[in-house]
Design goal:
Helix content: 10-25%
CATH topology: 2,3-Dihydroxybiphenyl 1,2-Dioxygenase, domain 1
Number of helices: 3
Structural class: alpha/beta
Number of domains: 1
Number of strands: 8
Radius of gyration: 17 Å
């Protein structure tokens, strides 16, 4: 802990790196590049495929099998969620529907706070999302 403090105070001063496990490397590479539009930075077989996600490093970690899943692995905060969902749908992304959740025709759910969220899966079944914060009252 002392070394971290001496090196810069805390982790708030450093960039985050996101890690998502994948098994089907070719499908994942195509999905993240073509459907999601992320920039491929490096391929490091047998370890990872690395993408630039708007300045955040995303490492798709090559695995022999996927660990048990719990919740959303990655999410993007967007503006104009309906437009983003429509564009991703046109690119072949299928949005999830959940029983008991009042999702609109695009699959967008509005939370009690007014935030909106839509979920989709990558080729390996990792749950991803796009969300938009509620607009401030005027």
């Amino acid at each position: 802990m002392m070394a971290l403090m001496a090196a810069g105070g805390n982790l708030a001063n450093f960039d985050i790196v996101a890690f998502v496990p994948i098994v089907d490397v070719a499908s994942a590479k195509r999905f993240y590049m073509e459907a999601l539009g992320l920039q491929l930075v490096a391929e490091e077989p047998p370890f990872a495929i690395v993408f630039n996600a708007h300045g955040i490093t995303l490492r798709l970690v090559m695995a022999k099998e996927l660990p048990p899943r719990f919740g959303t692995a990655l999410g993007w905060r967007v503006t104009g969620i309906a437009s983003v969902v429509a564009q991703l749908s046109q690119a072949g992304v299928n949005f999830e529907r959940y029983p008991g959740m009042a999702q609109d025709q695009l699959g967008i759910w509005t939370s009690p706070s007014g935030a909106t969220v839509a979920w989709f899966k990558d080729p390996d079944g990792n749950l991803l999302s796009v969300s938009e914060d509620p607009q401030p009252a005027r």
